[in-house]
Structure formats: C-alpha cells, structure tokens
C-alpha cells in the first residue's frame, strides 16, 4: 500500500512553503568542526534543530597475541563517546537546547535515513574535522551526503574574526531555476541578518542567459569572466557563506565535480540548495506504508 505524504509537512501553519532553514539536522562527532556546524545551524535555524551522532564498531582483530578488542571495537565505549559528543555540541549553542539523537550505524547512511524519516529541509556537517567517532566531516561522508541528501546541505567551516554568521553571502546565479532557488535562500539569510549579498555570474563556462539572470537578481550582480568554480571561489574569498543551487551552475547539473570542488576548496562555509521531494507541489512523491 502506498500513500502521499501529508501536505502539512510541506508547509507551515500559514500555508507557506517551508524554507531551507525550517527543519535542520546536524551531524556531530565530537570534533570542533562539527560543533561549528551546530553553531552555524543554530544561527540560521527558523524552526526545529536536531543534533545527531552515530557510533559503530570495527571488526575485532586477531593479531600475534591472539584475539583482543581495541577501544574502537568496544560498543559501550563508542556509545559513551557519542553521548559526550552530543552534549558538547549542545553546550556550544547558546539559544534553546536542540533535540539530540544517538544512533548506531554508518554516518552517511544514518543521516540520510534521518532526513527522509523526519522530512528535514537542511543537513549541516562540519569540514576537515578529525573526530574520534565515525566522523561527520569533509571527506567521504560529506561527499556522500552532498550526492545523496534529498534536501539542502550546509558544509560548515570555522569563521575567522567575528562570531556573527553570516556577514557576507555570495551566491552563484546562471539563470537556471536551481540558481533562482539558491538566490532566494541567500537573500532570505541576508535580509534576516543584515548581511552583504553578492550575486555572482560566471561567464567562462557555457553561455549564460542574461535575461533570466536579470529576472532573478536584476542588474545588481558581479559578472566574472572565469569558469564557475574559479569565479565562485574568488568571489567567496572574503565571505563566510557561499550559496549554490543543486543543479544550476552548469557542472552542478549532476551534482558532480563543480559542487564537490566548491565544497572542498572554498574557505567559507558552503550551502548547496536543493528542494526536498516531500516539498514538491505535485503528488509524485510517495512513500511505502
């Protein structure tokens, strides 16, 4: 038997579509980078905020001295470490205490499962952390969730200088509907936090439809001659948040090399905007029941 998801999960009480910041899930692993992800997520959250940490064990080892169980194969120690990681992340958030969940399993799979179960609108993970747990950090886990997360993804990086976030928001626009969604999210943040907003058009790749760009941002934008990755990285050099659409900006059509290169190389945090399937206006999204 199959049924459509309830429309009430797609919109708020006033019938408006939920924003990317309405229901945020944060992966934490005990590292300072994942705590920074929690801090930034708490700053931009407009509704529910949930912290999730996962733990698992490695296979037992048989060595020259016989069978033994190292710390990383002790399930109780791993769960205790997960609990400590969760509490540290919660302590770093000054506002109302977020919900916390501890699950057993592989990080990326645990995050994706949680996103789909709770119909979250944004996933936040840290970058370049070295947590003792499985690790919600830039690398294999973050790369996998960028590919597979059904909603927007924030790759958070520690900011230098002011603790306020965000202060300057750069957004890539190429005229596509996906870049329009990215611009809408970026403008929403800029208006909420009185941050500088810098739309960027990269003209070094495929031809950009300037008429569609004008419809999205008007004439207030920065036109750069570089290809998309170089243009976005250069524009975001002094920003604290770079926003891109999940299928716009040419190479992002398959959520492939451009998104990954930007996410890995940017010095700022990166927000990849994607509309979750459960927020589609049609009845095409179904779930088994």
Indicate the CATH class of the largest domain: Alpha Beta
CATH topology of the largest domain: Rossmann fold
Total of DSSP H or I helical runs spanning 4+ residues: 8
CATH superfamily of the largest domain: HUPs
The CATH architecture of the largest domain comes to 3-Layer(aba) Sandwich
Q: State the end-to-end CA separation.
A: 6 Å
Strand order of the largest sheet: 6-3-2-7-8-13-12-9-10-11
Radius of gyration: 20 Å
For this entry, give a set of tags:
289 residues, alpha/beta, Rossmann fold, two-stranded antiparallel sheet, 32% helix
In short:
The chain is α/β, with parallel strands linked by helices. It is built from eight helices and 14 strands.
Walk me through this protein's architecture.
With 289 residues, the chain is α/β, with parallel strands linked by helices. It has two domains: 2-151, 3-Layer(aba) Sandwich (Rossmann fold), CATH 3.40.50; 168-273, 3-Layer(aba) Sandwich (Rossmann fold), CATH 3.40.50. It is 32% helix and 23% strand. It has eight helices and 14 strands. The chain has helices at residues 32-44, 75-91, 107-118, 140-148, 177-193, 210-217, 228-235, 257-265, and strands at residues 2-4, 23-27, 48-55, 61-63, 66-68, 99-104, 122-126, 152-156, 168-172, 196-202, 222-224, 241-245, 269-273, 286-288. Strands 6-3-2-7-8-13-12-9-10-11 form a ten-stranded mixed sheet, sandwiched between helices. Strands 1-14 form a two-stranded antiparallel ribbon. The protein has a two-stranded antiparallel ribbon with strand order 4-5. Helix 5 links the parallel strand 9 and strand 10. Helix 3 (107-118) packs parallel to helix 4 and helix 7 runs parallel beside helix 8 (257-265). The longest helix has 17 residues, at 75-91. The radius of gyration is 20 Å and the shape is elongated. The N and C termini lie close together (6 Å). Mean pLDDT is 79; it is low at 1-9, 60-71, 129-134, 248-255 and 282-289.
């Amino acid at each position: 038997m199959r049924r459509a998801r309830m429309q009430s999960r797609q919109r708020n009480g006033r019938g408006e579509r939920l924003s990317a910041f309405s229901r945020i899930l944060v992966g934490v692993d005990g590292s300072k980078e994942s705590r920074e992800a929690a801090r930034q997520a708490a700053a931009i959250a407009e509704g529910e905020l949930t912290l999730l940490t996962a733990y698992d064990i490695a296979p037992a080892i048989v060595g020259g001295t016989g069978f033994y169980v190292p710390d990383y194969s002790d399930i109780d120690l791993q769960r205790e470490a997960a609990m400590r990681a969760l509490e540290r992340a919660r302590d770093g958030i000054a506002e109302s205490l977020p919900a916390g969940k501890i699950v057993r399993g592989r990080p990326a799979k645990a995050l994706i499962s949680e996103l789909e179960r709770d119909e979250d609108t944004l996933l936040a993970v840290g970058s370049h952390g070295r947590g003792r747990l499985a690790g919600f950090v830039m690398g294999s886990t973050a790369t996998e969730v960028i590919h597979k997360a059904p909603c927007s993804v924030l790759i958070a990086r520690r900011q230098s200088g002011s603790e306020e976030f965000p202060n300057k928001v750069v957004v890539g626009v190429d005229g596509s509907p996906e870049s329009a969604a990215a611009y809408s999210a970026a403008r929403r943040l800029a208006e909420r936090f009185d941050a500088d907003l810098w739309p960027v058009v990269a003209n070094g790749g495929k031809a950009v439809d300037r008429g569609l760009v004008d419809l999205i941002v008007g004439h207030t934008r920065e036109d750069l001659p570089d290809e998309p990755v170089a243009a976005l990285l250069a524009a975001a050099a002094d920003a604290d948040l770079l926003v891109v659409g999940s299928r716009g900006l040419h190479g992002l059509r398959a959520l492939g090399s451009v998104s990954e290169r930007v996410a890995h190389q940017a010095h700022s945090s990166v927000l990849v905007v994607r509309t979750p399937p459960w927020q589609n206006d049609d009845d095409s999204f179904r779930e088994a029941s």
